[in-house]
Amino acid sequence: MRADEDPAAGEAEAGLVREEFRQAHWNEPIIFEISQAGQRGVLLPEPEARIREAVGPAAELVPEGLWRATPPALPELSQKHVLAHYLHLSQETLGANLANDISQGTCTMKYNPRVNELLAADPRFAELHPDQDEETVQGILEIYHRFGRILLEISGMAEVSLQPGGGSHAVFAAARMLRAYFARRGEGDTRDEVITTVFSHPCNAAAPATAGFKVITIYPGEDGLPDPLALKAAVSSRTAGIFMTNPEDIGLYNPRVREFIDVVHQAGGLAFYDQANANGFLGVARAREAGFDICHFNVHKTFGAPHGSFGPGNGALLCTEELAPFLPVPLVAQSGDGYRLDYDRPQSIGKIRDFFGTAGVVLRAYAWVMTMGAAGLREAADVSVLNNSYLMKRLEGVPGLDHAFAGNGLRRMEQVRYSWRRLKEETGVGTEDVHLRVADFGLPHYFLSHHPWLIAEPMTLEPCETYSIRDMDEYAAVLHRVAAEGYREPELVRSSPHRSAAHRRKDDAALSDPARWALTWRAHLRKGNVRR
Amino acid sequence: MSAVDQFWGAGAAEGGTALATIGLLVNPVAGLGGRVGLKGSDGPKTLLEARRRGAVAEAPGRAVEALRTLAGQGIGVVTYPWEMGEDEARSAGLSPTVIGRIAPGATSGDDTRRAARELRDLGVDLLLFAGGDGTARDVQAAVGLDQLVLGIPAGVKMHSGVFATSPGEAGRLALAVCRGRVRGVRDGEVMDIDEEAFRQGRVDARLYGYLRVPDEPSGLQAVKTGQARQDEILAGIAQDLAERVAADRERLWLIGPGSTTAAIMQRLGLRGTLLGVDAVLGGSILLADAGERDLLELLAGRPASIVLTVIGGQGYLLGRGNQQLSPAVLRRVGREGLVVVATQGKLATLGGRPLLVDTGDPDLDLSLQGYIRVTTGYRQETVYRIGASDRRVPR
Question: Which of A81, A237, A378, B2 could form a disulfide with A77 if both were Cys (CB 3.0 to 4.6 A apart)?
């Protein structure tokens, strides 16, 4: 029997699938296109005569060197038109973080409490400036210090830096620290290899490579877990360390992690733990107790602040006593009754960015952990895993859907890598089609997979602790529906979306044309494709 | 105006000027030998025997399946008469332009080669052929790398990396090419085995060259690697190896066949052979296209490394297309002397299956098994497993 003929499936969908969903969808011009010369949002009054007499012409107050040669190319609009423009744009979004975001596997898209946004917007915090004297910012320094101690408690490490601007930045700083550590030991030239696993987050390969290491990636064995024999083939006297995620990207926890770390330690290397997504083990397992020397957390995501892509991010970098001298400066240190920024760390890798990390994210995260408490963090981990198991069960029997390494009998932790391979083979409808079609039912697109795609036609779902059973039922019902459509009416799915503001890209190849695209403005200029 | 534009003129295709033109070529006997256990369909004797055993060719039906996707899309089709494409195109609802002449029921590889050349000369945007490795060889011999080509899988043997994963996928991919959605190209291996030897239980595979195929990973191999473009990745691998070769001038470097290894030679500024084993020492070629005996002589008293690449889709490292790297040569160099290079994309085409070795010496094969480092980019390696070849020809 086909799924679309299955009455039970139909019943389960009833009331869950938003049949009538229609999203506002039009081609709102970009703001420069609606600019009209001479339009103004604000007309400033002329200064009063008394002020003019006292101060003189305003233009003379501006030092010569600060005048622009040409006026800035800014759009010119009235207030009403600015507001209308942004209102229109907002109507074409699904409202990330307020939508049913369980689909963003590996991203830890949990709900971010609004009360913490109020805290971050409070002028007593928002009007602080990083150039202020330490004495005048004792409050935020105390929050840095207290939040840092909490992270040390969660990880079992000895020292922490909240400098990095995001997860991958922290991983990069860790790689720099390894270089500094081995240089200090006189092994800077010989320890030039970092090992990672193919299902670790790709930054565990990219960040060490950027820091100058040669990167060796190990593939999983037949059970989907990294194979200790592969690790043994990868370690040598050149090994500086292993950079790994656990549970891996596909939701499998590597129970041999201790053995992995021992092999690397025996070869003289260090072990880095990427804990960007710590939802599966908060309060359950501590990095140091597994033998890791250095690790990081994404302060956004796991600790209740918005995902980095939708707001500022912050990475926490934590390490053992032995590696602490190499942490970036400054660290927030307690001194007497107060707190200060400690720059006096001669072996430090130095500053890795301006100022002192993303204070707004640290503030939100501190509020979040203090609201949750230690037991609450553990509960967040438990519910994340429970939610994931529930969703996985609800997706059993979706036609054309399987999950990676299905036969290994291992429990998935907080996320699962699914595969639409069967659907693709049987109907021609692939994961990119399903991904676009779900938006027609008011759901955000799902995350497919990091690269390389070892699992064909991938889909990665991660229902964090903040989603309800109804949220998961809704997502499952929509996937059931779309898969059934794939068998019954494949063109409908292949030509989707039909009712959402999302688009189907007409020309994928154009997006990977290196002659056209650049990652930096300088590269863009070098490629000479600036439109003037 | 291209030759094809002139050829079509306005209004010749369904609904007006053709968006693009596909050259269609069907090997009407491809797949004939498979179901009746003949392991191939090459040569008139085999064909007779297959027909005697009641065989039915696979290619026509599979070609029709692929072509249905193209019907009503405003795409022009030029093809050869009767069973070499015309019949299949019409069955799929297309109105092809027919060129050339054949003797129905008695076509051979000569017809395939002639048709491929004529279709290329017309300037078709894509040459779509239905067949197997034998057909791919004929097409390769006729058009080389001059023409964008895609295989509809329809043969008994399909070791070549020029086929779509299914007929339906071939149709969808062809349509995507015609609509300008697929711009990337890659050079797919044209492999074939000696059918006669294979019937006697010996696998004698050769790499015959390369065809230029559209590079849309999800269609051709069901994977995406997220890496830079193929040529950039290759350049990275070539640079890595070139540095290693240049740094060790006392070592004899045996550079195996393939386009990945050819990129290394190019980086070294050496003119090697695409399909042979070239010996490099001290920065220059000692011997190009060396045979087993040459290699054994060159190896005497020298440290040596062999640079090998992986056959996409099947994973063969040794025993397919590089038999001059014989058990004796391999024993001399040793496992630690093997340097494997492959793109992540090529490894991903294996779907988790191991790399394979089939040297003809089971003990040696066994000793080569286990994990090995594969260079996948500049200062990038992947540890991948070499497993046992079961000596069956993988599909």
Answer: A81
A173 burial class (0-12, 13-18, 19+ CB within 10 angstroms)? buried
The helix/strand/coil state of A368 is helix
Non-local (6+) Cβ contacts of B316 within 8 A are B205, B310, B355, B356, B357, B358, B389
Q: What is the pLDDT of residues B178-192, one digit of tens each?
A: 887 776 788 888 888
Distance of residue A502 Cα from the nearest chain B Cα, in angstroms:
19
The reply to whether B215 and B331 lie within a common domain is no
Q: Which two tokens stand for residue A241?
A: 């360390």
Gap from B379 CA to chain A (nearest CA, Å) = 5
Residue A176 corresponds to which tokens in the numbers above? 């720099």
- A216 has a chain B CB within 8 A of its CB: yes
- Report which DSSP code applies to A49: H
Q: How far, in Å, CA of B21 to CA of B178, rounded?
A: 7
Between B220 and A222, the more confident residue is A222
Query: A157-213, pLDDT tens digit by residue?
Result: 999 999 999 999 999 999 999 999 999 999 999 999 999 999 999 999 999 999 999
Q: Determine the residue of chain B that is closest to A193 in CA distance.
A: B379
Alpha-carbon distance B140 to B22, whole Å? 17
Optimal mutation site among B177, B231, B383, B384, interface A, most CBs of chain A within 10 A: B383
| Residue that terminates a domain, selected from B220, B250, B266 | B220
Backbone angles phi, psi at B258, to 5 degrees: 125, 160
Complex confidence, ipTM: 0.82
pTM, rounded to two decimals? 0.80
Q: Are A465 and A380 in contact (CB under 8 A)?
A: yes
Say yes or no for a CB contact (<8 Å) between B222 and A508.
Answer: no
Let me know whether B180 and B237 are in one domain: no
- Return d(Cα A193, Cα A178) in angstroms, integer: 11
Contact B352 A222 (CB under 8 A): yes
The torsion region of residue B160 among left (phi > 0), alpha (psi -120 to 50) and beta comes to beta
Say if A232 is an interface residue toward chain B (CB within 8 Å). Answer: yes
In sequence order, the 6+-apart residues with CB closer than 8 A to the CB of A321 are A158, A159
For residue A171, what pLDDT is reported? 98
Model confidence pLDDT, tens digit, residues B279-293: 999 989 999 999 999
User: Closest Cα of chain A to B165: distance in Å?
Assistant: 9
Q: How far is A80 from chain B (nearest CA, A)?
A: 41
Architecture of domain A3-22+383-502: Alpha-Beta Complex (3.90)
Check whether residue B96 and residue B166 sit in a common domain: yes
Which of A232, A450, A454 comes nearest B352 by C-beta? A454
Rounded CA-CA distance A484/A304 in Å is 36
